[in-house]
Amino acid sequence: MEYTQLGRTGLKVSRLVLGTMNFGPFTEEADGHAIMDAALDAGINFFDTANVYGWGENKGRTEEIIGTWFAKGGGRREKTVLATKVYADMGAEDAPWPNEGRLSALNIRRAAEASLKRLGTDHIDLYQFHHIDRATPWDEIWQAIDVLVQQGKVLYAGSSNFPGWSIAQANEAAARRGSLGLVSEQCLYNLAERRAEMEVIPAAREYGLGVIPWSPLHGGVLGGALRKERDGSGTRSRSGRAAEMLADPADRARLQAYEDLCDKHDLDPGDVGLAWLLTRPGVTGPIVGPRVREQLDSAVRAAGLTLSEEFLAALDEIFPGPGPAPEAFAW
Q1: Of the listed 53, 156, 207, 258, which one is catalytic?
Q2: Is the model's pTM score more than 0.90?
Q3: What is the pLDDT of residues 125-142, one digit of tens each?
């Protein structure tokens, strides 16, 4: 496993990030523990979660599974760079109450304490804002984070799903306070969805944020979805962005060209999708969210794949990027 520094920090993290969103809803606790053990064995030291994972009535369950894994000892917590998130409403869905979500100082404090308890640890290495909060000023947000940093409960702050201007706004506000500011941005980014290249990734690079792509295979469609349709090997129906892409004839044609290119070079499409992200400027490492151990093994294999310049150029022809801003939408 290769390692890189997270943005402008001195923190070294693996070039693959273990996503844990499936732990609880789709992956039982024991299997989640086995996957995390295997990830550490493979050299993956960067684990990502969120307070809301587990979903519905089980919000927080994923953090609890990580916490019981840490409790096994053996250096598990010490070897892990732990990232979680704050923003989602964590109150009871059938009895909503104010201040159970978003980025007020009150909720940040409560949410951090609750996450620490579920995770069974005394600190969060990377505390990420899961979404922008249009109602809370950055001075309030940074004041709350500064207190957590001073208490030793949080080491670094990051963002997720932020537009480029919010990254700039956040870090300019932090600079005025003499705070470190955001050190990472977790965004939707993959071969099929490259809009982040216009402004999000340039802003992240300008301000020294490591880029952590989520959904690196676009909901699985870049993992050979058309071939799996034909041979019946798909394990679940697609939804959301993946379903939209499969329903669009033009997108299906691009997917077919992609799978044909991979077949021509005897490469697995899923491996190629991950390996491509590892070639992109500013990318720290994509998040892989395995439901089963075999999916983790496949991701680790992909991390060692080298794509030629000719092959990368062919991928750009199939999935062209939007180009830089403002030229992508102006002259």
Answers
A1: 53
A2: yes
A3: 999 999 999 999 999 999
